[in-house]
Design brief:
Blueprint (H helix, E strand, L loop, with lengths): L1 H5 L1 E8 L8 E2 L3 E7 L5 E8 L5 E7 L8 E7 L5 E7 L5 E8 L5 E7 L8 E7 L5 E7 L5 E8 L5 E7 L8 E7 L5 E7 L5 E8 L5 E7 L8 E7 L5 E7 L5 E8 L5 E7 L8 E7 L5 E7 L5 E8 L5 E7 L8 E7 L5 E7 L5 E8 L5 E7 L8 E7 L3 E2 H5 L20 E11 L2 E7 L4 E5 L5 E4 L12 E9 L3 E8 L2
Antiparallel strand pairs: 1-32, 2-31, 3-30, 4-5, 5-6, 6-7, 8-9, 9-10, 10-11, 12-13, 13-14, 14-15, 16-17, 17-18, 18-19, 20-21, 21-22, 22-23, 24-25, 25-26, 26-27, 28-29, 29-30, 32-35, 33-34, 33-36, 36-37
InterPro entries: FlgD/Vpr_Ig-like (IPR025965), Secre_tail (IPR026444)
Protein name: FlgD/Vpr Ig-like domain-containing protein
Organism: candidate division WOR-3 bacterium
């Protein structure tokens, strides 16, 4: 029996579980593109457009009217430029966030030194479908104010998030502006304490309110903590949460997930293996932590963007100093619904390359934007990478000579026991089976030394578990498969 553990060859069938996720393998790179001139050009936000092409914003020192200008690049589905526009004045101006609007035009949010009331102001540009300006607005006071996130809201207006030095209680505060479809202000809010606080990302939630993430030096456990704010539709605070340790921690992207909780992409100096690690946090609807995951090596990693994928997992983009070819590289991590890694990829050359925004595409592939010092025409260039769809285990099982572990679930929901049958298949150095609840907590673990494993609905301490959703995870030296089970008592 010891030989099974040492060198197991099997096909796994789980009976009385539930249909779930397939094991995803890293997709192929379909194409990469660089855009820019002889100076620096930085890409910060990408969206797939209704025609299957892409829209990108950021800032350019190569083109435009001033020091740096905001830009829009519209491409076709292959990444070839259809048109390119710059926006700005004689000083430095930039774009941080872009979205296609309901009229097929675009909304860009960023910051401007060329226009407005103060040192730096929030810069909002509304264009038509060809990038021609419909209107421009600035928002702010006498000090520095800027935007990093914009979204069209259900009423046809827009919500903007950033940081303000002009308003609020402290040195800097989270700055949120609600405007109508013409850019006229409906309300503004500042959130924070006496120290420096800033907002990085905002999204409208299913109840009509908003979720905001950033960093806070006013509250929490450390120098800076991840700062999560939930508001109602008028911007009034419903609750706030901080996450972090004694060092610097910051949140850069937040989304409401299918279960109406939240997923946050962050960076942490307080926890992990290296100087800074990429940090993924999953919360419930009230912001209470369900689980957290750390990714990285001995150097620095940070997560700037996260999306929930069509199978309930996550795709995260950021940078890594620990892995890859250069000083910094694009860092892409694909996880299951519990944040456990399915695959990771780095992209870049021998110098510095940063990814800042990732989206899942209509064909279930991915598009990532950032900037590269390794390739292109100038100092830094906009760097766009298009990945194809993932392949899964079920597809590979149909290939002769390549049998892999497979989880089949019958019936679902279930009131009975779970039987796991071991049959000949591909080689693996080890095999383990674990069961988790929806909070990501380990319920039961098995060491499959026999051809049949039975789960009696109890945890590792022999206690009966309650009705609900559970995740059955099979791990081998070759792969990991997670399946969902609904247990009814």
């Amino acid at each position: 029996m010891g030989s099974i553990m040492k060198r197991a060859s099997f096909l796994v069938v789980v009976i009385l579980l539930g249909e779930g996720d397939l094991y995803a393998q890293a997709p192929d790179t379909l194409w990469t593109k660089t855009y820019g001139g002889i100076n620096d050009d930085i890409g910060l936000s990408v969206e797939q457009t209704s025609d299957e092409g892409f829209i990108i914003t950021g800032w350019t020192y190569s083109f435009g009217a001033g020091g740096s200008d905001a830009f829009l690049i519209k491409t076709d589905a292959e990444g070839d430029i259809l048109w390119y526009k710059t926006y700005g004045g004689p000083a430095d101006d930039n774009g941080f966030s872009v979205q296609q609007t309901s009229d097929n035009g675009y909304i860009i949010a960023g910051g401007t030194y060329s226009f407005g009331a103060g040192d730096k102001d929030v810069y909002l540009i509304k264009t038509d479908s060809l990038g021609e300006v419909i209107w421009v607005k600035t928002y702010g006071g006498g000090l520095a104010d800027w935007a990093t996130s914009v979204q069209q809201t259900a009423d046809g207006g827009y919500i903007i998030c950033g940081t303000t030095g002009s308003f609020g209680a402290g040195q800097l505060d989270v700055y949120v502006i609600k405007i109508d479809s013409l850019g006229d202000t409906i309300w503004t809010k500042a959130y924070g304490g006496m120290n420096a606080d800033g907002g990085n990302y905002i999204r409208q939630t299913s109840d009509g309110g908003y979720i905001i993430v950033g960093s806070t030096g006013s509250y929490g456990a450390g120098l800076y903590d991840v700062y999560l704010i939930k508001t109602d539709s008028s911007g009034d605070t419903v609750w706030t949460k901080t996450y972090g340790g004694v060092e610097n921690d910051g949140g850069y992207c937040v989304l409401q997930t299918a279960d109406r909780g939240y997923i946050i992409a962050a960076g942490t100096y307080s926890f992990g293996a290296g100087r800074e690690d990429l940090w993924l946090l999953k919360t419930d609807t009230l912001g209470d932590t369900l689980w957290t995951r750390l990714y990285g090596g001995t150097e620095g990693e940070r997560g700037y963007s996260v999306c929930q994928t069509s199978d309930g997992g996550y795709i995260i983009a950021g940078y890594t100093c620990s892995f890859g070819s250069g000083n910094f590289d694009f860092y892409l991590i694909r996880t299951d619904s519990l944040g456990d890694t399915l695959w990771t990829r780095t992209y870049g050359g021998t110098t510095s390359d940063f990814s800042y925004s990732v989206r899942q595409t209509s064909d279930q592939g991915y598009v990532i934007v950032g900037w590269t010092g390794s390739y292109g025409s100038g100092g830094d260039d906009v760097y766009l990478i298009r990945l194809g769809p993932e392949t899964d285990v079920e597809e590979q099982l149909s290939h002769p000579g390549n049998p892999l572990p497979f989880l089949e679930i019958l019936p679902n929901p279930s009131k009975g026991m779970a039987r796991i049958l071991l049959k000949p298949g591909s080689d693996a150095d080890y095999v383990e089976l674990k069961i988790f609840n929806v909070a990501g907590e380990l319920v039961r673990s098995f060491s499959p030394l026999s051809p049949v494993i039975v789960w009696d609905g109890r945890d590792d301490k022999g206690r009966k578990v309650s009705s609900g959703v559970y995740f059955i995870r099979l791990s081998t030296s070759n792969l990991r498969i997670t399946e969902k089970m609904i247990l009814l008592r």
